[in-house]
Amino acid sequence: MDLLRVEGLQVRYPIHKEPSIKDVSFIMKKGELVLLTGKSGCGKSTLLKCINLTIPHFIQAEMRGVICIGDRNTASMQVQDIVSLVGIMWQDVEAQIVNLKVEDELAFGLENLGVEVSEITRRLKVLKPLLKIDYTAFIHSLSGGQKQRVVMGAVLSMLPDLILLDEPLANLDYESSKSFLAFIKSLTGMGKSILMVEHRLDMAAHYCDRLLIMEKGVLVRDIDDRDAILEEERKRKFFRTLQNGNSRQESAVSINNLSFSYGHKSVLSNVSIDIKAGERVVVLGENGCGKTTLLKIISGLLPVRNSENGMLKLFEAPVHKKRKGQEGMIGFVFQNPNHQLFMDSVYNEVCLNGFNDKFVEEIVELFELDELLSRHPLSLSQGQKRLVAVASVVASKPKILLLDEPTIGQDYDNLHRITEVLNALNQRYGMTLITVTHDKLAAKALCDRVVEIAQGGISVGGVEIVDQYFS
Fold first, then answer.
1. Which of 422, 404, 427, 279 is nearest to 363 (CA)?
2. Which helix (DSSP H) or strand (DSSP E) does residue 225 occupy?
3. Which CATH number fits domain 2-235: 3.90.180.10, 3.40.50.300, 3.30.70.940, 3.30.457.10?
4. Contact assessment for residue 24 and residue 47, using Cβ atoms and an 8 Å cutoff
5. C-alpha angle with apex 411: 410 to 417, nearest 5 degrees?
6. For the chain, which terminus, N or C, has the lower number of CB atoms within 10 Å?
7. Burial of 180 by CB count in 10 Å (0-12 exposed, 13-18 middle, 19+ buried)?
8. Quick count: other Cβ atoms within 10 Å of Cβ 221?
9. Which compartments does it reside in (predicted)?
10. 251-329+398-469 sits in which CATH class?
11. Whole-angstrom Cα distance, residue 54 to residue 40?
């Protein structure tokens, strides 16, 4: 039975001359898990917005073609008609959260549909082993990956016939990704259909029934053969790893017996590590273990009193509250690019804190941003925003570069480009790279040493830990 039918879909935003989607047609059957992939900005998220009526009801765009859910044409439907049929999780999960506490967020959609309290309680109990989150927690205290789990749970709890997922694995650690994929695969056995936009084919390809590939707004391939799907996944496995000869004996970041808590909740306990200038360190660990907290402490976004909570030094100098003399030493790429894009064009964004004009030109060329320079940063796809955020921070030429999930939302080519550029900057200018990632390819490409955080403590080892962690 056909659950979703898309025929001749064409979409053009008012700010663009060319359509973002061009004559896209496909059918999804009941109980199918379909994986949709393609380069950043090719129209994947736009397609999802059309299916759940975000376009044209909330986002203005010229739209032609037919979309049917079951036997109903969505052109004749209102948003309130579709919420019980189609659930969606966006790339920017923070924009989808409306409550202060986890349990309230999970129950919000069900309450609006008038579901009985006993049924709400039952559904949330079923989801708890998958989400692995304290239902009484305040959402602002959660990590990016934990927030993604909350939104995922809120969507899944409503049990819509069609579930749309936009980069659902982006912020999830390896074990959570496997659990999530197994769970949504089990939903297809209950007759639910899932259309998932995802770049991490190494994880998702083994679970999907079909693979759709888009290029520049056009659906170019529809693959339903298992061997052909896995062949597409194998094409994206090769990444060049570099031996770094740039590390020096000088210490860039030195942490000794550092502890940190949020209120009564201990996150890091007696952590000690010495990172050399020019070294590339990858930080691994499950969602909520303290990876982003560690970066925030190094950057100064979270205060550390050296006398009470251990010692933090940058280039052998103790860090004080005002960090006098250490300004501009550190660049920090946040997990959510929307939190650090401020200017009215990509060019002005990259120039904002640029080291000098010549270096800015070098960064624009390395990241291949020429075609995006006149665009407003917030008009870009999430993957393109990430690329611009990385470039704008790198353009300040920091000595220490902190990267919190720098490859989220990146297609294979952009992921390769980002890691190649970061390695080039490490080699040319001796930038110290400290990268938090859940992506195996990025971890292997940006790694001299690995720091794994678990239960508040850390273990340190070589590149071999990456293979062990993702096995």
1. 422
2. none
3. 3.40.50.300
4. yes
5. 75
6. C
7. buried
8. 13
9. Cell membrane
10. alpha beta
11. 20
> Whose CA is closest to 330, among 359, 299, 304?
299
Assign 357 to helix, strand or coil: helix
One-letter amino acid identity for 180?
F
Which tokens hold the place of 201? 């084919």
> Pick from 72, 78, 55: which is nearest to 9 by CA?
55
H or E element, residue 171 = none
Cβ atoms 400, 432 nearer than 8 A: yes
Report the C-alpha gap between 183 and 163 in whole angstroms.
Answer: 13
Distance of CA 270 to the CA centre of its chain: 29
* 443-455: b (≥16 Cβ within 10 Å) or e: bbbbbbbbbbbee
**C-alpha distances out from residue 2 to 32, 81, 87, 161, 218, Å:** 10, 19, 17, 12, 22
Structure-token pair, residue 380: 């870009």
Who's near 229: CB < 8 A, 6+ residues apart?
35, 205, 208, 210, 211, 223
Which segments within 250-351 are labelled E, that is strand? 251-262, 265-276, 280-284, 311-314, 317-318, 330-333
Cis, peptide link before residue 56, omega less than 30° from 0: yes
Q: What letter represents residue 185's amino acid? A: K
Please tell me the distance from the alpha carbon of residue 415 to that of residue 47, in angstroms, as a whole number.
Answer: 23
CB-based contacts of 428, cutoff 8 Å, min separation 6: none
Q: What is the pLDDT of residues 395-426, one digit of tens each?
A: 999 999 999 999 888 888 888 889 999 999 99
In one-letter notation, the amino acid at residue 161 is: D
Sequence spans of domains, the chain: 2-235, 251-329+398-469
The DSSP element (H or E) to which 13 belongs, if any, is none
Q: How many CB atoms are closer than 10 A to CB 75?
A: 12
Q: What residues form DSSP beta bridges with 193?
A: 162
Spatial strand order in the sheet of 317-318: 265-276, 251-262, 311-314, 317-318
SS3 290: coil
Residues in the chain predicted with pLDDT less than 70, given as ranges, are: 236-248, 305-310, 321-326
Contact 268/294 with Cβ under 8 angstroms? yes
The rounded distance, in Å, linking the Cα atoms of 267 and 356 is 39
| Residue 433, amino acid | L
Within 10 angstroms of residue 411's Cβ, the number of other Cβ atoms is 19
Q: Tell me: the pLDDT tens digits for 50-105? A: 999 999 999 999 999 999 999 999 999 988 889 889 999 998 888 899 999 999 99
Structure-block tokens of residue 427: 């080699």
